[in-house]
Amino acid sequence: MDHTKGKGQGMGEQTIVNVHNAPPGTAVRERQSDGLKVVDIMIQDVESDGPFFRQLSRRTGVRRVGD
After folding, report:
1. What span, in angstroms and rounded, lies between the C-alpha atoms of 67 and 64?
2. What share of the chain is helix, strand, coil (3-state, %, to 5)?
3. How far apart are CA 40 and CA 47, in angstroms?
4. 14-56 tens-digit pLDDT
5. Dihedrals phi, psi of 34, to nearest 5 degrees
6. How many angstroms separate the CA atoms of 3 and 44, rounded?
7. C-alpha angle with apex 39: 17 to 41, nearest 5 degrees?
8. pTM of model > 0.85
9. Which among 32, 45, 55, 57 has most CB atoms closer than 10 A?
10. What is the Rg, in whole angstroms, of the alpha carbon atoms belonging to the chain?
């Protein structure tokens, strides 16, 4: 669910992104989408099926799709 649309209009662009304990290999990409600033963060652990992702997958059933 997107809670950003319609909020903060007229206030200018505001973006705060905090990533704590990001391991080496963490990739960050900023882009614009439908007038919103979007920050995509890919934690290397998720990309490489590391221990965090394996535990998350066991607990929630989440799976990676695609490359």
Report:
1. 8
2. 20, 20, 60
3. 13
4. 777 777 777 777 888 888 888 788 888 877 777 788 888 888 8
5. 50, 40
6. 26
7. 85
8. no
9. 45
10. 15
